[in-house]
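Session log. Operator J.P. requested a structure for one protein chain; no other inputs attached. Running the standard single-chain path with token output.
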Amino acid sequence: MLIRWFYERRLLSSKNIDHLTVKVEKKIDRRIVKAKGFQVYEVENFRSLVKGDKFTDGAYTTAMLRTTYAESINPIAVPNAEWNVPAEVKLAKVLPPAKECW
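Structure written below.
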């Protein structure tokens, strides 16, 4: 399943030509409409205070998406019964990334 997820996300990211991921671009487009009412205060030259706005984090860029899924995942040729998995790993709940991020 991990191999399939990485393949699908790698394929999606390779088709994206924009700086930000498709989902984030759509989210920003929606927020631009909402941002019309933001208040902007000049602090000094080239610096302003924007009330009500959050800026995009680097984690949502296409480059970061590509970096995240760039590595290959190879199946392990050891039967599950022979794995030595630490208790904290067995108890960990691992979920796939939220689709809104890619």
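Operator note: Helices lie at 2-15, 22-34, 62-68, 87-91.
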